[in-house]
Structure formats: C-alpha cells, structure tokens
Amino acid sequence: MDTKQQIKDLFTSLNKCEREVLLTELATIKELDKNADVKNDVKSCPFCSNTNFVKNGKHRGIQRYICKTCNRNFVFSTGSAYQGIKKKDKFESYKSIMFNEGFIPLKTMSSRVGISMQTAFDWRHKILCSLKSTDGKFENITEIDDVWFLYSQKGRKGLKYSRKRGGSKRKGDNDFQVKMLITSDRNNTKDLSVVRIGRLKSNDIERKIGNRLESSSILVSDKHNSIKSFAKKNKITHVSFKSSEHIANNQHHVQTVNSMAARLKGSLNHSFRGVSTKYLQSYANWFQFLETNKGNTDVISIVDKCLDSNNSWDVFTNIETLYKKFIKEYSKRTYRCPTKRGWKTQLKDTVSVTALSYL
Ligand SMILES: [Zn+2]
Questions:
Q1: Residue 327 covered by a domain
Q2: Which domain holds residue 157?
Q3: Cα-to-centroid distance, 18 and ligand 1 (Å)
Q4: What is the pTM (predicted TM-score) of this model?
Q5: What 3-state DSSP class applies to 41?
Q6: Total domain count, the chain
Q7: pLDDT at 309
C-alpha cells in the first residue's frame, strides 16, 4: 500500500476532534511551505533590480535582505501585492471570494471578510493591478473589436460639477467614450486593453498588441478603418465585413469578442453600477482572468503567481500617476482634482516601464 493511502486510512481512524486539530496543523505546515517557496524566489532587488544582494538577519521570523548596489533592505514581499498586508488570513479569504464568486460589491466583501471599506477597496485594486501579465502570441484566426464605456470620474472628490458618471450621452460623441480593445484568438489567448478616450487609432492597436501578432495571423473584424490600416501596415491578412452582417462566413466571425464585450459591459453596469475610468483596466483584468480560467478548480494558485510578481506595488501606488498620463496623452479631457493619497514607500522615484504599459 502506498504512503498516501496509508495516511488516508489513518486519518479516517481519527475522531472528529482529532481530525480538526490535525487539519489545522497541516494548514500551518502548508503556509510555512508556501513562505519558504516565496523566499527562495527572491531573485533581484525590488528597488534597483540588481541581483547583488545578501541575507541581512531576520525580523519576526522573516528573512531580510540587503542590496549591495543600492544599500536598501527588503523582504520577500517587498514590491509584491503582499506588501503591507497584515491580516493575511482575511486576505486569503478575500482572494478566494473574488475569484470563485466573481464580481461581488465592496460592501458585501467588507462585511463578509470583516474588514473596512477602505481595506476592501485597496485589496481589490492591489490584486487587480497584479493580474495583467499575459503576453502570449495570438495564433491563426484572431478576432478584434473595440467596445466603449462612458468616461467616468466616479469616486473623485472635489469636482465642481455633479455629473461624475457618464459625461455626454450624445450618440457618437467620441470625446467621452473610453475605448477598450478586445482581441481573442480561438485558443483562449485574450487581451482587453483600455486604449484611449476618443476614436480608435491604428497606433493604439500597434501599442497594445502589435508584438503579439504573427505574420501568419488572420485578423477578423468589422469594417474599421484603424484595424484595416494596422493590418495593412503590418502585412497581416485581414478579413472584414459590415458590422450589421456580423458573419463573413462560418469561420470568420467576431462573435467571441462581441459576446465578451457584452458580458463585460453587463457585469460592470449591473454589479457595480459603472466603474471609474481610472480603474476600468483593472476590471478588465479581472474579467479576462475569470474568463480565461473558467472551470479551473485551482484558480487561486494562478492568482498567487501573479501576486508574487515584484512590480505589483509599483503599479498599485502609481495608479493615479498612470491615470493622469493616460488622460493627458490619450484623451481630450482635462485631468482634475488629483487624489491626495500618499504612500510611505514608493519603490522607485519614477514609474517603471512595466507599470507604464498598464494604462
Ligand atoms: Zn537595490
């Protein structure tokens, strides 16, 4: 009989109380194992990315390191989404609800997990800005379309006018429409990127997915000039048709991206009654992640891998800066009323290149 089976048999021979005790002890071991894994994963200094670092004592049982290049101290969680999180067990259950149950309002999260609204908000965005890490290539037939959301400043304090959500509702008023590019091939490789407020340009496509297409890709879209010129410039085969027809032939359709767009819009408008433009990319990441990992019973371990990445804190603490840059470079809107929130530890003096690709 193999060891695993023996343990299972022994386990069933325990009484209910003994089982409970054992399970708790095992959970602790699992936690220690996990921390050990992460510690081994420290590959570079989160401040200057140099690999020239050494151990520098322990603090409350956690290994500290010092960088020999920039002379700064750090631990395994510095720079990751776990930086600054004290209620670790609550964070774990928060994560599990987010990815096993989907779009749940903050108020519900705060009462179910037992944390303040502010913490619930911070955790959500810490997690979401860590998720966008897919860079796989699109293969063969690749559908592409843009979907728009009304420009929204929901939650921004100090605006002189009352209309924070919505902007103009005039039909075709592109200057208030936040464009999101949705791309998907038939192998579950997807990309949802907020690109600009205004009419989609071929440069936007280039900037967001340019390096993820191959010359063998076949782009399928409705008759959109920007997509057409992007394909032409990059010598990629392009199949297009009138948006009213929807299907060019059996194989060439954009139903995958159309249905994703409809579901994302529906979810954001119903579950959250619209979201602010500042966080639209974060919600797109969440949606994309849920779509890609639908039916995966071990979704949390994939989330964990994303959260360990050491630029999460960088993006999270710089979202306002990234939003400001987005408004200035990719819209005709005016950036107003900066949020006053500051962070004790901003990792780098300037926003890193990786963070910049976020919005
Ligand atoms: Zn360093």
A1: yes
A2: 141-356
A3: 48
A4: 0.81
A5: coil
A6: 1
A7: 74
